[in-house]
Amino acid sequence: MSDLLIGIDIGTTTTKVGVYQSSGKLIAEASRANPLRRHGPDACDQNPNDFYQGAVEAISRCLIHPEVDSGNVRAIGVAGQMAGVLGVDVDFNPSTPYDSWLDLRCSPDVSYLERELGDALIEKTGCAAMINHAPKMRWWRREEPSAYRETAKFVMPGGYVAGKLAGLSAADAFIDRTYLHFTGVADARCGCWSPELLRVVGVGEEKLPQIVEPTAVIGGLQRETAERTGLRQGVPIAAGLGDTAAATLGSGVVRSNQLLDVAGTAAVFAGSTADFRPDTADRTLIVMRGAVQGQWISLAYLSGGGLLSWFDREVLGRVGDGEFPDVTAGVETVAAGSDGLVFVPHLDGQILPSNPMMRGAWLGLNRQHTKPHLVRSILESVAYEYDRYLRILRRLHPEFQVQDVRVVGGGAHSDVWNAVKASVLGLTYARLDRDELGCWGAALVAGHAVGLIPDLAAAAEASTTVRTQFEPETRAHERYQKMTEIYAAAVESIKVPSAALAAIQGREDS
């Protein structure tokens, strides 16, 4: 058996592990659920140790595979969800839970940063004020001062798991550059902490980890974890990267003028470019560094697959897994535009432009609308959001020329959703021949870290090919061009009642 690489992806609801040959061939994979803990409409966190234990268990399951020789594992890379934070004490034990990107309690801090910094924050970080690290760290300092004092460093789930695997202390805590846009306290261009932003946010640099490259080796597998997993002690661990950056790399989106749809619990729409061009006008696109040197990724996201799971559980009352074929059955019989039904998908608030008080809604509902209408309108709402993101991307990058969108994640397996997105955008949708791009992206970085993969971009391109294409349907695209305008008007129309209803709910919960 040839040299092997392990990629770990710490997602919102699942930790996944893949074992690969350096060519990209998947040898074994396993996963474990990451429980979400909701404490009310705005509070949502996770136990950091669930991430670590899940990674250890999933690695152990992979090593049972008969084609996996643990002695041939050359390196490990870890990717993870990006917009939330967790604190660790001096011994690298959790001092806070993981403050999820779904947790809205720091909304007043988002408003504060918008008032104090506005466009300056976007120009410096590439990201408008939103639910991410800076407001969350402010919230912990203000609302939980004892936990804040105990916190030696704030880290992300991927960095936490990598640190636990390597047995790091807080002094060795790290963050790689693909996360910096979400910190709210970093200068994106230089890849360093910004004294100006730190002063306004009110967090000392001593609370922040060191900034490293994704391919930096941060340590070797500690003895205890080696014994639990069956791996040899000392296997090099790469710093890794954010899950969106990992999926972008793993999908072979490494050149300018490429688009990627990460159709997961969060629906991410991203374009690869060569320039840092912050979105100060629409305050919607985030500009982040990619894994490949010189690559910038402009992206926006909203709740995606999580909407269907919510519908399956809370509307249909089923206890299933919200599998796409089950939830979307019959949707293909409904005409484009859902017979005049529009869904606003911002159940957890609008991410960007930031409006945590935004809520979801159906507009145009009548007695002729059926379950497939409701589901199709949910699928279309994500596509309408993507259309808005693409229009902004093209305004920022008039030279951007693209023919297709690569789609990955659980939603990529839904033919009807791919067809809807293709027709809304007027672009070919290309489903790839591999599924877990986040794990493969993390494994690619690990391979580069130990010299097994000399050229990241070339390896990513060579290892990923298109399996199926979905072409836009002309008549549907024409109808959707009108529906995107109606959708935009629908979102605008519910802003005021959403804020009022959120305020009432807040008072009732307090």
Structural class: alpha+beta
Provide mean pLDDT, rounded.
94
Q: What share of the residues lie within helices? A: 25-40%
Q: Unreliable runs, pLDDT <50, ≥5 residues? A: none
Quote the beta fraction.
15-25%
Largest sheet: 7 strands, mixed
Got a strand count? 25
3D shape: globular
| Radius of gyration of CA atoms, rounded to a whole number | 22 Å
Calculate the terminal CA-CA distance, rounded to whole Å.
60 Å
Annotation field: number of helices: 18
Order of strands across the main sheet:
19-20-18-17-23-24-25
Describe this structure in words.
It is a single chain. This protein has 510 residues and is α+β, with helices and mostly antiparallel strands. A hairpin with a 2-residue loop joins strand 17 and strand 18. Helix 13 packs across helix 17.
Write the layout of secondary structure elements.
Layout: E1 4-10, E2 14-21, E3 26-33, E4 37-38, E5 44-46, H1 48-63, E6 73-80, E7 86-88, E8 98-99, H2 107-116, H3 119-125, H4 133-143, H5 145-150, E9 153-155, H6 157-166, E10 174-176, H7 180-183, E11 186-187, E12 192-193, H8 195-201, E13 210-212, E14 217-220, H9 223-229, E15 236-238, E16 241-242, H10 243-250, E17 258-263, E18 266-273, E19 286-289, E20 296-303, H11 305-315, H12 324-327, E21 342-344, E22 361-363, H13 371-396, E23 404-408, H14 415-425, E24 428-432, H15 437-449, H16 456-463, E25 466-470, H17 474-493, H18 495-509
Parallel strand pairs: 1-6, 6-16, 10-13, 17-23, 23-24
Antiparallel strand pairs: 1-2, 2-3, 4-5, 5-8, 7-9, 11-12, 14-15, 17-18, 18-20, 19-20, 21-22, 24-25
